[in-house]
Protein backbone atom coordinates (compact mmCIF):
# COMPACT_ATOMS: atom_id res chain seq x y z
CA UNK A 1 0.00 0.00 0.00
CA UNK A 2 1.06 3.59 -0.54
CA UNK A 3 1.15 4.26 3.20
CA UNK A 4 3.97 1.75 3.66
CA UNK A 5 5.79 2.67 0.47
CA UNK A 6 5.81 6.35 1.36
CA UNK A 7 7.67 5.49 4.58
CA UNK A 8 10.46 4.08 2.41
CA UNK A 9 11.25 7.33 0.56
CA UNK A 10 15.00 7.90 0.60
CA UNK A 11 16.96 10.75 -0.98
CA UNK A 12 19.15 9.40 -3.78
CA UNK A 13 20.59 12.48 -5.42
CA UNK A 14 20.99 16.22 -5.49
CA UNK A 15 21.92 18.17 -8.62
CA UNK A 16 22.82 21.85 -8.80
CA UNK A 17 22.33 24.03 -11.85
CA UNK A 18 24.32 27.08 -12.95
CA UNK A 19 22.91 30.43 -12.02
CA UNK A 20 20.41 32.49 -13.92
CA UNK A 21 21.04 36.22 -13.82
CA UNK A 22 17.74 36.84 -12.05
CA UNK A 23 15.36 35.12 -9.68
CA UNK A 24 14.14 31.70 -10.85
CA UNK A 25 10.33 31.83 -11.06
CA UNK A 26 9.40 28.33 -12.21
CA UNK A 27 10.95 24.87 -12.56
CA UNK A 28 9.17 22.10 -14.47
CA UNK A 29 10.10 18.62 -15.63
CA UNK A 30 9.53 17.02 -18.99
CA UNK A 31 6.93 14.22 -18.83
CA UNK A 32 9.69 11.59 -18.73
CA UNK A 33 11.58 13.61 -16.10
CA UNK A 34 14.72 13.68 -18.25
CA UNK A 35 14.76 17.47 -18.79
CA UNK A 36 14.40 20.29 -16.29
CA UNK A 37 13.11 23.62 -17.62
CA UNK A 38 13.69 26.81 -15.64
CA UNK A 39 12.60 30.39 -16.28
CA UNK A 40 13.78 33.57 -14.66
CA UNK A 41 13.53 37.31 -14.17
CA UNK A 42 16.54 37.49 -16.52
CA UNK A 43 14.03 37.03 -19.40
CA UNK A 44 15.45 33.62 -20.32
CA UNK A 45 14.62 29.94 -20.09
CA UNK A 46 17.19 27.18 -19.59
CA UNK A 47 16.87 23.51 -20.51
CA UNK A 48 18.92 21.09 -18.40
CA UNK A 49 19.67 17.40 -18.37
CA UNK A 50 17.92 16.50 -15.13
CA UNK A 51 20.33 13.66 -14.33
CA UNK A 52 23.67 15.31 -15.04
CA UNK A 53 22.89 19.01 -14.64
CA UNK A 54 24.30 19.71 -18.11
CA UNK A 55 22.91 22.85 -19.75
CA UNK A 56 21.23 21.71 -22.97
CA UNK A 57 19.98 25.02 -24.37
CA UNK A 58 19.06 28.61 -23.58
CA UNK A 59 15.90 30.23 -24.94
CA UNK A 60 15.78 34.01 -25.22
CA UNK A 61 13.38 36.45 -26.85
CA UNK A 62 11.09 37.64 -24.09
CA UNK A 63 11.38 41.31 -23.24
CA UNK A 64 10.37 40.93 -19.60
CA UNK A 65 10.73 38.46 -16.72
CA UNK A 66 9.53 34.95 -17.58
CA UNK A 67 6.96 33.96 -14.95
CA UNK A 68 5.86 30.45 -15.95
CA UNK A 69 6.80 27.59 -18.27
CA UNK A 70 5.39 24.21 -19.30
CA UNK A 71 6.13 21.20 -21.51
CA UNK A 72 3.68 19.57 -23.89
CA UNK A 73 2.91 15.97 -22.93
CA UNK A 74 4.84 14.64 -25.94
CA UNK A 75 7.80 16.90 -25.03
CA UNK A 76 7.97 18.27 -28.58
CA UNK A 77 7.19 21.80 -27.39
CA UNK A 78 7.49 23.99 -24.33
CA UNK A 79 5.74 27.26 -23.62
CA UNK A 80 6.57 30.35 -21.60
CA UNK A 81 4.57 33.22 -20.10
CA UNK A 82 6.11 36.61 -19.47
CA UNK A 83 5.72 40.04 -17.95
CA UNK A 84 5.96 41.32 -21.55
CA UNK A 85 2.29 40.23 -22.00
CA UNK A 86 3.23 37.47 -24.46
CA UNK A 87 3.21 33.69 -24.52
CA UNK A 88 5.87 31.97 -26.60
CA UNK A 89 5.92 28.40 -27.93
CA UNK A 90 9.33 26.77 -28.48
CA UNK A 91 10.74 23.58 -29.98
CA UNK A 92 12.29 21.47 -27.23
CA UNK A 93 15.05 20.06 -29.44
CA UNK A 94 16.41 23.42 -30.57
CA UNK A 95 14.91 25.99 -28.16
CA UNK A 96 13.70 27.84 -31.27
CA UNK A 97 10.65 30.07 -30.83
CA UNK A 98 8.01 28.91 -33.32
CA UNK A 99 5.08 31.07 -32.24
CA UNK A 100 4.38 34.25 -30.30
CA UNK A 101 0.88 34.54 -28.85
CA UNK A 102 -0.42 38.03 -28.17
CA UNK A 103 -3.76 38.82 -26.59
CA UNK A 104 -3.15 39.58 -22.94
CA UNK A 105 -3.12 43.19 -21.82
CA UNK A 106 -0.92 42.73 -18.74
CA UNK A 107 1.72 40.36 -17.39
CA UNK A 108 1.10 36.65 -18.09
CA UNK A 109 1.64 34.57 -14.94
CA UNK A 110 0.71 31.00 -15.92
CA UNK A 111 0.73 28.73 -18.96
CA UNK A 112 -0.30 25.08 -19.39
CA UNK A 113 -0.69 22.59 -22.26
CA UNK A 114 -3.67 20.26 -22.58
CA UNK A 115 -2.70 16.57 -22.30
CA UNK A 116 -3.67 16.00 -25.95
CA UNK A 117 -1.25 18.81 -26.96
CA UNK A 118 -3.93 20.62 -28.97
CA UNK A 119 -4.63 23.52 -26.62
CA UNK A 120 -2.74 25.93 -24.42
CA UNK A 121 -4.10 28.11 -21.63
CA UNK A 122 -2.58 31.27 -20.26
CA UNK A 123 -3.66 33.71 -17.56
CA UNK A 124 -2.39 36.78 -15.80
CA UNK A 125 -2.94 40.22 -14.38
CA UNK A 126 -5.67 41.19 -16.85
CA UNK A 127 -7.89 38.64 -14.98
CA UNK A 128 -8.63 36.69 -18.17
CA UNK A 129 -7.62 33.17 -19.15
CA UNK A 130 -7.07 32.61 -22.87
CA UNK A 131 -7.36 29.20 -24.52
CA UNK A 132 -5.17 28.96 -27.63
CA UNK A 133 -4.98 26.53 -30.53
CA UNK A 134 -1.39 25.27 -30.43
CA UNK A 135 -1.23 24.47 -34.15
CA UNK A 136 -2.51 27.80 -35.45
CA UNK A 137 -1.82 30.11 -32.54
CA UNK A 138 -5.39 31.41 -32.74
CA UNK A 139 -7.53 32.26 -29.72
CA UNK A 140 -10.13 29.53 -29.15
CA UNK A 141 -11.87 31.09 -26.16
CA UNK A 142 -11.45 33.81 -23.56
CA UNK A 143 -12.49 32.77 -20.05
CA UNK A 144 -13.58 35.83 -18.05
CA UNK A 145 -14.89 35.84 -14.52
CA UNK A 146 -12.07 36.12 -12.01
CA UNK A 147 -11.98 39.32 -10.00
CA UNK A 148 -8.20 39.46 -9.68
CA UNK A 149 -5.04 38.18 -11.36
CA UNK A 150 -4.83 34.54 -12.47
CA UNK A 151 -1.72 32.81 -11.15
CA UNK A 152 -2.22 29.10 -11.89
CA UNK A 153 -3.86 26.83 -14.46
CA UNK A 154 -4.20 23.17 -15.37
CA UNK A 155 -6.15 20.87 -17.71
CA UNK A 156 -8.00 17.73 -16.70
CA UNK A 157 -6.40 14.49 -17.87
CA UNK A 158 -9.01 14.09 -20.65
CA UNK A 159 -8.54 17.72 -21.83
CA UNK A 160 -12.28 18.42 -21.36
CA UNK A 161 -11.93 20.84 -18.47
CA UNK A 162 -9.52 23.53 -17.41
CA UNK A 163 -9.06 25.04 -13.96
CA UNK A 164 -7.67 28.46 -13.07
CA UNK A 165 -6.51 29.78 -9.70
CA UNK A 166 -6.53 33.43 -8.78
CA UNK A 167 -5.53 36.18 -6.40
CA UNK A 168 -9.27 36.48 -5.72
CA UNK A 169 -8.80 33.30 -3.61
CA UNK A 170 -11.01 31.19 -5.87
CA UNK A 171 -10.57 28.32 -8.30
CA UNK A 172 -12.76 28.22 -11.39
CA UNK A 173 -13.38 25.06 -13.43
CA UNK A 174 -14.42 25.60 -17.04
CA UNK A 175 -15.89 23.13 -19.53
CA UNK A 176 -14.22 23.29 -22.94
CA UNK A 177 -16.86 21.18 -24.70
CA UNK A 178 -19.95 23.14 -23.70
CA UNK A 179 -20.85 26.73 -22.89
CA UNK A 180 -22.15 25.80 -19.44
CA UNK A 181 -21.28 28.23 -16.67
CA UNK A 182 -18.02 27.69 -14.86
CA UNK A 183 -17.92 26.15 -11.39
CA UNK A 184 -16.38 28.40 -8.72
CA UNK A 185 -14.59 26.71 -5.80
CA UNK A 186 -14.38 28.87 -2.68
CA UNK A 187 -12.66 28.33 0.63
CA UNK A 188 -9.07 29.52 0.30
CA UNK A 189 -8.05 32.70 2.12
CA UNK A 190 -4.99 33.40 0.00
CA UNK A 191 -4.12 33.46 -3.68
CA UNK A 192 -4.16 30.07 -5.44
CA UNK A 193 -0.64 29.43 -6.71
CA UNK A 194 -0.83 25.82 -7.96
CA UNK A 195 -3.33 23.35 -9.40
CA UNK A 196 -3.33 19.72 -10.48
CA UNK A 197 -5.96 17.22 -11.65
CA UNK A 198 -5.75 13.54 -10.76
CA UNK A 199 -6.48 10.73 -13.18
CA UNK A 200 -9.88 10.21 -11.52
CA UNK A 201 -10.86 13.88 -11.82
CA UNK A 202 -10.03 15.18 -8.35
CA UNK A 203 -8.52 18.66 -8.30
CA UNK A 204 -5.84 19.85 -5.85
CA UNK A 205 -5.23 23.54 -5.22
CA UNK A 206 -2.29 24.95 -3.29
CA UNK A 207 -2.53 28.41 -1.78
CA UNK A 208 -0.57 31.07 0.03
CA UNK A 209 -3.00 30.54 2.91
CA UNK A 210 -0.92 27.52 3.89
CA UNK A 211 -3.38 24.86 2.78
CA UNK A 212 -3.98 22.42 -0.02
CA UNK A 213 -7.60 21.72 -0.84
CA UNK A 214 -8.68 18.58 -2.68
CA UNK A 215 -11.94 18.97 -4.57
CA UNK A 216 -14.59 17.09 -6.45
CA UNK A 217 -14.79 20.01 -8.87
CA UNK A 218 -18.08 19.37 -10.63
CA UNK A 219 -19.81 19.02 -7.27
CA UNK A 220 -18.00 22.12 -5.93
CA UNK A 221 -17.13 20.09 -2.84
CA UNK A 222 -13.86 19.97 -0.89
CA UNK A 223 -12.91 16.44 0.13
CA UNK A 224 -9.88 17.41 2.22
CA UNK A 225 -8.28 20.57 3.57
CA UNK A 226 -4.61 19.73 4.09
CA UNK A 227 -2.82 22.00 6.56
CA UNK A 228 0.76 22.92 5.73
CA UNK A 229 1.32 25.01 8.87
CA UNK A 230 1.28 28.44 7.32
CA UNK A 231 3.66 27.59 4.46
CA UNK A 232 2.95 29.18 1.08
CA UNK A 233 2.21 26.22 -1.19
CA UNK A 234 3.95 26.66 -4.56
CA UNK A 235 3.38 23.25 -6.20
CA UNK A 236 1.08 20.23 -6.04
CA UNK A 237 1.28 16.93 -7.92
CA UNK A 238 -0.75 13.72 -7.91
CA UNK A 239 0.88 10.33 -8.35
CA UNK A 240 -0.03 8.58 -11.59
CA UNK A 241 -2.79 6.55 -9.92
CA UNK A 242 -4.02 9.47 -7.81
CA UNK A 243 -3.55 7.66 -4.50
CA UNK A 244 -0.89 10.06 -3.27
CA UNK A 245 -0.51 13.84 -3.47
CA UNK A 246 2.73 15.79 -3.05
CA UNK A 247 2.90 19.45 -2.06
CA UNK A 248 5.87 21.81 -2.18
CA UNK A 249 6.17 25.15 -0.47
CA UNK A 250 8.14 28.10 0.79
CA UNK A 251 10.08 26.00 3.27
CA UNK A 252 12.39 23.02 2.87
CA UNK A 253 9.77 20.28 3.16
CA UNK A 254 7.86 18.32 0.52
CA UNK A 255 4.81 16.72 2.05
CA UNK A 256 3.28 13.42 0.91
CA UNK A 257 -0.45 12.98 1.51
CA UNK A 258 -2.55 9.81 1.49
CA UNK A 259 -5.65 10.47 -0.61
CA UNK A 260 -7.67 7.78 1.13
CA UNK A 261 -7.80 9.77 4.37
CA UNK A 262 -6.05 13.13 3.82
CA UNK A 263 -3.23 12.31 6.24
CA UNK A 264 0.36 13.48 5.79
CA UNK A 265 2.38 10.27 5.63
CA UNK A 266 5.85 11.64 4.90
CA UNK A 267 7.81 14.89 5.01
CA UNK A 268 10.83 14.95 2.70
CA UNK A 269 13.76 17.15 3.67
CA UNK A 270 15.19 19.33 0.91
CA UNK A 271 18.16 21.68 0.97
CA UNK A 272 16.92 25.19 0.15
CA UNK A 273 14.35 27.56 1.54
CA UNK A 274 11.99 27.54 -1.44
CA UNK A 275 10.58 24.56 -3.32
CA UNK A 276 8.99 25.63 -6.58
CA UNK A 277 7.58 22.43 -8.04
CA UNK A 278 7.18 18.69 -7.59
CA UNK A 279 6.25 15.80 -9.82
CA UNK A 280 6.07 12.02 -9.90
CA UNK A 281 8.23 10.30 -12.49
CA UNK A 282 6.74 7.50 -14.63
CA UNK A 283 8.63 4.99 -12.45
CA UNK A 284 6.94 6.40 -9.34
CA UNK A 285 9.94 8.24 -7.89
CA UNK A 286 9.20 11.73 -6.68
CA UNK A 287 11.32 14.55 -8.03
CA UNK A 288 11.28 18.07 -6.68
CA UNK A 289 12.97 21.25 -7.84
CA UNK A 290 13.84 24.37 -5.89
CA UNK A 291 15.48 27.75 -6.21
CA UNK A 292 16.75 30.30 -3.78
CA UNK A 293 17.10 34.05 -3.91
CA UNK A 294 19.47 35.92 -4.17
CA UNK A 295 21.80 33.25 -5.63
CA UNK A 296 19.42 32.39 -8.49
CA UNK A 297 20.71 28.83 -8.37
CA UNK A 298 18.37 25.98 -9.26
CA UNK A 299 18.57 22.71 -7.41
CA UNK A 300 17.04 19.29 -8.04
CA UNK A 301 16.31 16.61 -5.47
CA UNK A 302 15.25 13.04 -6.12
CA UNK A 303 13.69 10.52 -3.79
CA UNK A 304 13.15 6.82 -4.48
CA UNK A 305 11.15 4.20 -2.66
From TrEMBL:
<dbReference type="InterPro" id="IPR036322">
    <property type="entry name" value="WD40_repeat_dom_sf"/>
</dbReference>
<dbReference type="Pfam" id="PF12894">
    <property type="entry name" value="ANAPC4_WD40"/>
</dbReference>
<keyword id="KW-0677">Repeat</keyword>
<protein>
    <recommendedName>
        <fullName>Anaphase-promoting complex subunit 4-like WD40 domain-containing protein</fullName>
    </recommendedName>
</protein>
<dbReference type="Pfam" id="PF00400">
    <property type="entry name" value="WD40"/>
</dbReference>
<feature type="repeat" description="WD">
    <location>
        <begin position="17"/>
        <end position="58"/>
    </location>
</feature>
<feature type="repeat" description="WD">
    <location>
        <begin position="143"/>
        <end position="184"/>
    </location>
</feature>
<dbReference type="InterPro" id="IPR019775">
    <property type="entry name" value="WD40_repeat_CS"/>
</dbReference>
<dbReference type="InterPro" id="IPR020472">
    <property type="entry name" value="WD40_PAC1"/>
</dbReference>
<dbReference type="InterPro" id="IPR024977">
    <property type="entry name" value="Apc4-like_WD40_dom"/>
</dbReference>
<feature type="repeat" description="WD">
    <location>
        <begin position="59"/>
        <end position="100"/>
    </location>
</feature>
<feature type="repeat" description="WD">
    <location>
        <begin position="233"/>
        <end position="267"/>
    </location>
</feature>
<dbReference type="InterPro" id="IPR001680">
    <property type="entry name" value="WD40_rpt"/>
</dbReference>
<feature type="repeat" description="WD">
    <location>
        <begin position="101"/>
        <end position="142"/>
    </location>
</feature>
<feature type="repeat" description="WD">
    <location>
        <begin position="185"/>
        <end position="215"/>
    </location>
</feature>
<feature type="domain" description="Anaphase-promoting complex subunit 4-like WD40">
    <location>
        <begin position="230"/>
        <end position="274"/>
    </location>
</feature>
<keyword id="KW-0853">WD repeat</keyword>
<dbReference type="InterPro" id="IPR015943">
    <property type="entry name" value="WD40/YVTN_repeat-like_dom_sf"/>
</dbReference>
Amino acid sequence: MWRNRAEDFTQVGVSYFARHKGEVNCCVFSPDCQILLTCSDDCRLHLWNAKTGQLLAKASGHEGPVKSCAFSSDCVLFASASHDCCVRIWLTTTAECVRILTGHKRSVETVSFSPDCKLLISGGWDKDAIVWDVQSGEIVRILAGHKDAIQSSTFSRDSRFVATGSWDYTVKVWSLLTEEKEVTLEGHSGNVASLCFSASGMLASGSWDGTVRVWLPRAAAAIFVLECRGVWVRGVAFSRDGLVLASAGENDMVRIWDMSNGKCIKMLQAQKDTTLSCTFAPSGALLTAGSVDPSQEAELWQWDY
